[in-house]
Amino acid sequence: MYQQEVASAGSAPAADGPAPDRQKAAPAPQPSDGREAIGKPKRPAPAAISNPKEDIAALDDLERHLYAHRYARIGISCYGPSIDPAKAVSDRGEAQAILEQEDKELLCNPETGALLDRLKAMPDLLDDTRKAQVKVLSRDREQMVGIPDDLQMEHTRLLAQASSVWHRAKAENDFASFEPYLDRLVASAKEIARHQNPKADPYDVWLDRFEHGCDRRFYDELFGQVKGIVVPLYAEIRRIGWQPDRSVIEGRFDERRQWALASDLVDLEGLDRDALFVTSTEHPFSDALTTNYAIIAAHVYENDVVSNVFTMLHEGGHTLYECGVNPAYNYTSLKGGTSAGMHEAQSRFFENYVGRSRAFAGPLLKAMASHFRGQLGRVTPNQLYLAVNRAEGGLIRTEADELTYPLHVLVRYEIEQMLFSGQITAKDVPTVWGEKYQEYLGVTVPDDTHGCLQDSHWSDGLFGYFPTYALGSAIGAQLRHQMISEGMDWEGLLSQGNLAPVREWLRTRIWQYGRAKDSSELIQDACGKPFDASYYTDYLLQKFSAIYGIRLPEAEPEDGAQQ
Questions:
Q1: In what order do the strands lie in the sheet with 293-298?
Q2: Phi, psi of 398 (to 5 degrees)
Q3: Is 231 helix (H, G, I), strand (E, B) or coil?
Q4: Where are the domains of the chain?
Q5: What distances in angstroms separate CA 208 from CA 146, 172, 324, 434, 455, one per listed residue?
Q6: What's the pLDDT tens digit per position in 270-292?
Q7: Angle at 540 between CA 340 and CA 250, to 5 degrees
Q8: Considering just the CA atoms, what is the radius of gyration of the chain in Å?
Q9: Residue 49 above 50 pLDDT?
């Protein structure tokens, strides 16, 4: 999960750092001379300015104010829950609420609206970067301008309280303590949505916040297409009864050595150690505050080294995206990923399309065995490949295999719709969760810690985020297909552990644009065609049919074979 979404759902992404293999980018736009120093956040621009140069200077000043607030909010959001004492929850929430309110005032005051309107009226005087800034700031403003100040501040305070309660509730298997907060969060989110867009369905409003232009109709179609392949394929795998041997990667793995392995994975993936801070947390996330400061927070389990490996690859994908944005966008609203779906496309690309591929199994095993020779020294790359692609129903979304993963997401998507429609309330969630896990994955949920309390998203107010994981997986499949169709030696590069050409392709087609282009435009430009989920379903069908020896009527398998 990319943490900036937690800092302020729907607000502008945080600034992030450079990719180590990036080509030299265009110089950043320089502020106009005579710009006022940063002052109170209420007035980023004078009430009436007719000089275009002064308007552009005012735009720069507004962006610097917004950047400073993002830096402060994200820092509090990342570190507060980990290092603050328990009694400081309300204090942290108050600080966040004040910063949120000042951020909203900066963006939503009438003077900013007038400034953006004037800039829209002078397109011939703006370069592409300025035009993109105006577009993104206007959209961000539209999301926030109708929300009452007291509602926004109370929602932010509630998020701080709910996050603290969730951490305790998960550790103690105590959903009852979190239940009233979930009801309040849903009610608050619905109220915010009504103020943002009174004519739209509240859940559609939140879906659109994380992926512009997407609503329930879009996701219902996506999940329908995915279910049409995944459900019968998973049923056939269960009927066969054979499973790859996972015991080859099981055992006890020293936590200190796992953190050393995490550091090596940073290098293997191509991240810049000098700009990265790696730490521990209950629920993994990543973020970045400046071009020189990225954060990955992971969770190490002594009995499961694979969990840490794929967490690092996943969060590393998020970080590569943020660090690959054109540095000309630093300190502006264009800095960061364009959407949650595109962000998850990058994270799941490196976690799955790279990390769980047959070709990459050799370099990945080499890194793992260098720290755990006794446990993994005799494991072959093929054994590792099969073990990490074992398709079976499980309880934990973040530990799920590629095939069943979208079913985990579907459970959450359907429950969120039920909560927002009033069909259920928080007290019903554990029961409905258990029923859906039995229906879709064939597993019995033993407790709420391993059930509806496992994710931090609801306590962070991220309703509508979960579907972007499935969307991101589908986008990633299309990007991978395009790389290969253009002649990239995918198998050869990954077998050598050489990800530089892959990173460069993504940097030039996706990352460098930050928020300047929407996901739909990026996909069209990168692939020459619009988003198409069939690349994802074809990939899953071919890969897992090959692993489990299921004969396909058409198409040759891409990856692997039953051994």
A1: 276-280, 293-298, 285-290
A2: -70, -15
A3: helix
A4: 4-168
A5: 16, 34, 24, 28, 21
A6: 999 998 999 888 778 998 877 77
A7: 90
A8: 23
A9: no
